[in-house]
Amino acid sequence: MKEKKDVTLEENKAEEVVTSTVAPESTVVADSAWSAGQAEAAAEEKDDLHGENLTDRAKVLSPWMTVLKRFFRSKLSVIGLVTIVVLFLFAFIGPLCSPWAAAGGTKLDSNPELIKEILSASPVTYTVGDMEYEALAVSVRIPQVVKLGDISWSHWMGTDDMGYDVLTRLMYGGRVSLTIGFVVVIIETVIGVIMGGLAGYFGKWVDNVIMRIVDILSCIPTLPIMLILSVVFTQSGLGSSISKLYYMMIVLCLIGWTGTARLVRGQILSLREQEFMLAAKASGLSTFSKIFKHLMPNVIPQLIVSMTLGLGSIILTEATLGFLGIGAPLNTATWGNLINVANISTYRQYYPNLWVGAGVCITLAILAFNFVGDGLRDAFDPKMKR
Amino acid sequence: MVKYVIKRILLALLILFGVSIILYVLIRMMPNNYFADQYKLTRANAGIPQEVIDAELTEILKQYGLDDNSFGGILKGYFMWLGKFLTGDMGISFKYGNRPVQDVIGQYMWISFGISFVALLLEMVIAIPLGIKCAVNQYGKLDYVATVLCMVGIAFPSFFLGNLFIKWFAVDLGWFETGGLGNGFFDMIWHLILPMTVMVILNIGGLMRYTRTNTLEVLNADYIRTARAKGLSEGKVVYKHVFRNTMIPLVTQLSFTLPSLFGGAMITEEIFALPGIGQIAYHGLLEGDIFLAMGYNMFLAVLTVIGVLLADIMYAVVDPRIKLGS
Q1: Which residues of B touch A228 (CB under 8 A)?
Q2: Do B18 and A374 touch (CB under 8 A)?
Q3: Given CA atoms B310, B313, B315, B318 in this order, what sign does their dihedral have?
Q4: For the segment B179-219, what is each residue's pLDDT rounded down to a tens digit?
Q5: Fewer CB atoms < 10 Å away: N or C end of chain A?
Q6: Does domain B103-318 have CATH number 1.20.1250.20?
Q7: Angle A183-A188-A191 (CA atoms, 0-180°, nearest 5)?
Q8: ipTM of the modeled complex
Q9: What one-character-per-residue DSSP string does B95-109 give?
Q10: Domains of chain B by residue range
Q11: From B220, which residue of chain A is nearest by alpha-carbon distance?
Q12: C-beta atoms surrounding A140 within 10 Å
C-alpha cells in the first residue's frame, strides 16, 4: 500500500517538471515537500476565492534552470559531480601542497638542496713536505634516494622504483589524464557535429559519402590501431616526449567522431521535417543559420550527454594505453603509466601502493563521469517518468 | 527483404575494402617486420656479410610484396595481398610457426570464443532476470543497489580489476591460479574462474541496464495494461507478457557482441596469460608479424560488419512492424 502511494507521488513530480517552465511557484514547492505542497494548494484555493490573479505569483524557470534543478535532485549525479570536482582539485591544487612537487612530479625523493647542507665545518692544518696547508674540513649530508620506500609520514603512498613520491605523481598524472579527456571529447564533438550536420542536412550524396566514411572508421578496431601507431610514432623519434601521447589522442579523435556524427545526423533527419524548420525556410534564413541556430540547439542535450559519457571512455582509453606501455612515455606521470607497474608481478604483489591508487582514481573518474552523464540524460528528458 | 540484404552485403564489401586499405597502409608504416628481423639475425649469426643478407632479404620480401616502402610499393603490396585475400589466403604468420594466418586465427579463436561464450551466458543468466526485477520494482532498494553496482562494474578498467583479483585471490589467498589454461578439463575451469569473473563484472552492467530500460518501456505498453485488465496474476504478466517482449531488443543487441565473442579480449587474455586470439594478435602486432596483424584486424572488421548487418536483419525478423529497406 505504501508503495502505491509513493508511485503516485513520483508521477505528480513528473507532471510538474514537464510543465514547470510555466508552473506557479506553489506547485514547484510542492514537489520538495508533499505536506507543505498540500498546505500551499489549500492556500492557493483560498487566494482564488479572493480573486487574486494566480499568474502574479508564478515563478518562471528557464529550460536550463529546469534541467539543473532536476539534475541536482538526483543523488547519484550530485555524488558524481562532487567526485569530479574533488579529482580536479586533487590533480590541480594538490601538487601545490606537496613538498615533492616540481616539474611534472619528476622531483626525486632526495631534495637536491639538501646536498649542500653542511653539517659541520672546522678549519684544519696539515703539512705536505715543507708546505703547510690550511683547509676546511666539511662534513655534508648526501641524502639517499629512497627507492620503493614504504608508506611513511613524508611519503603518504611511498615512493616508486625511481624514488619519486607516488602521491605527487598521482596528482600530476591526474592533470594529464583529466585534461586529455576534455580535449579529445571537444575535438571529437566538433568534427562529429560538422560531419553529422552536413550529412543530415544536405542528404543525398553528401550523406552517402559521409556515412560511408563513418561506416569504415567505425569498423577499424581501436586498440590494435593504437598499438600499431604507437610503434610507428616511437620509431619516428617521438618515443621519449609527451607529444607522442598528443599524436595518439589526435588519432583517437580522427577515428572517434563517428558516434557523434551518427547521433547528430539522426537527430537532424527527424528535426528538419518539423514545422519550425519550414518556418525558418519561409523566413529566408541562410543555410548556415538554419543549421547552427535552429537545428543544433535541439541536438545539444544529446551532445552534452554523449560528451560526458565520452569523457569517461577517453580516460579509460588513455589508461589502457598507459597500462600496455604504448601511451605517453613511461617517465611521464599519467594514471595509465602509473598502473603500468602492475605488469611486473613483484610490484603487483609486494608494492600495491604503486598502482592501486592510480586504478582507484581511474575507476572513480569514469564512474563519476558516468553518473553525471546519466543524471544529465534524465534531467534533459522531458518524458522521463520519475 | 532479399533485395535489401543483398544491397547491404554489397555495401559491406565496399566498407571492408576501405577498411583494408587503411589497415594495410598503417601496418606497412610499422618500422619492424618480424620476418626481416629474424632473418637478419639468423643469417648474421651464420657469418654472412650484411650486403648479401640485404640482397637475399629484398628478394624474399618481394615475393610477399613487402620490399618497397614507397607509396607505390605499398599500393602494389596491397593489391597483392588483396588478390590472395579474396582467394582465402591471408598470408603467412612468421611468428607462429610459419603457418597460414587463417590457421593461426582458426586455432586460437576457439579458446577466446569458449571463454567469452561462457562469460556471456553467465552474464545473461544473471543480468536479464535482475534487470526485469529492477524494472518491476523501479526505485526500490534492489533497483538502487543493482544500478549503482552495475555502474561500478562498468567503470572498472579490466586491467585494474584483473590485477587486483590476481593479487588478492590468486596470490594472497591462493584460491585460484594466476593465469594460463592448465591441464585437463577441471583444472582449466579452475584457471578460468578469475578471468571469467572479470569479464562478467565488466560486461554485466551494460546488459542489465539495457534489460531494465527495455522492461520499463514494455511495462508502459498498452498490452500490459490489457493483460492486467484481463485479471492475470502479476507473475503471469511479468514472466509471460513482459519477459517475451523484453527479449526482442535483447536478441538484436546480442548481434553486436559478435566481434568480442570471436575476437577475444586482448587485455584480459594478456593479464591472465590465456592463449586466446587476442593475446596472440597482441604479441604478433607488437613484433611486426605483418600478415597476422592484417589478418586479425580484417577478421575483427568482418565480424563488426556482420554483427551490424545481423542486428538490422534481426530487428525485422523479431519485430514484424519494422520494414527493412525503407
Answers
A1: 26-27, 29-30, 285, 293
A2: no
A3: negative
A4: 777 777 888 888 888 889 999 998 898 889 888 888 888 88
A5: N
A6: no
A7: 125
A8: 0.85
A9: TTTTEEHHHHHHHHH
A10: 2-97, 103-318
A11: A385
A12: 12
